[in-house]
Structure formats: C-alpha cells, structure tokens
Amino acid sequence: MFGQMLKALRTAKGLTQQDIANYLGVTPEAVGNWERGTREPDLATLLKLAKYFDVAVHYLLTGTDDPNRRPPWPEEWEPAVLTLVSQGYSPEEVLEAVRLYRVLQKELPDLPHLTKPLDQ
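== HTH cro/C1-type domain-containing protein ==
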C-alpha cells in the first residue's frame, strides 16, 4: 500500500523519482524500490515523506481516502506508532491498542503509568 500511495502522490505533483531522491538524499533506485514494494523506507524517511507531501503518515501506510485525515492518536505518538508498525503490527492492531490505552486511562486514571505519554 505504501508504494502505491507514494507513487500516486509523486505523480499527482508532477515529480520524478529523482526529485524525491534529491529531497531525501537517497538514490532514485531506492524510491523506485519503495514504489514497487520491494523495499521500505526507514521511519525517519517515512516521516520526511509525510511532511514533504503534507499528509499524515497514516495516509501513506493505509491509503485512506482523505490524505489530510489525521490518525486517531496524538501527533506526538507518531514515532511510537511507527515503531510498532515497523515491528510488524498492522495499523489496525495499533489502532486497537490506542483504543485500549484510552479506555484504561478513562477507567483507571490514577495508575501512574497511564498518565505518561505513550512514547515514554
């Protein structure tokens, strides 16, 4: 899904793989590999791409219909969420974990470990 989304965003803006490669400091071959799905970028690169195209990382990963729709977690959680996705959890599993975290915060607000941000 990521490769399809990257290619769609790139071509919609009339950019070449070389343009994206120049921005990221990688080779055009790397961009082509991402678009074909034979390789995946690291987390830092994924964040840069989302910022470059002004879309949510969630959109790049899942291909939601609205590129401006933000994920259901706070922006500061993005690195932790991306870490989970890079470890093999699906976006749906991460979303379920976020839902559970919010339920626990609501139902058990006095537990100290639930008052800390997700990435600590």
